[in-house]
Specification:
By secondary structure, the chain is an alpha+beta fold. It has one domain. 32% of the residues lie in helices and 23% in strands. Strands 1-3-2 form a 3-stranded antiparallel β-sheet. A hairpin with a 2-residue loop joins strand 2 and strand 3. It is flat. InterPro entries: AS_sf. This is Amidase domain-containing protein.
């Protein structure tokens, strides 16, 4: 089992990938593990662990083929609690 960062960068501003080729490339490269692991057929999930300001951040849990350890690790991490992050639907 692996415990990885979700992204090489903290969460991006909404719509960054639509602000030109350089911005799209930045998002594309930062999300490498989110793209590669499913293509390799590895089970994984992301769980929130904390907040940076009001933005949730977390970890990505990846297991070997046919393992259910991701869900067990997720339960252990979630049991520690994550501060709530209210979302304003108007922004």
């Amino acid at each position: 089992m692996l415990l990885l960062r979700v992204s090489a960068e903290l969460p991006f501003p909404d719509g960054l990938d639509l602000q030109g080729d350089a911005a799209f490339q930045r998002v594309w490269e930062a999300q490498l593990t989110l793209r590669a692991l499913p293509a390799m057929g590895l089970p994984g999930l992301t769980v929130s662990t904390n907040l940076v300001g009001s933005v949730p951040v977390g970890v990505q849990i990846v297991a070997a083929h046919w393992e259910d350890l991701c869900l067990q690790a997720d339960n252990a991490i979630e049991a520690q609690g994550t501060p709530p992050s209210p979302i304003d639907p108007m922004t």
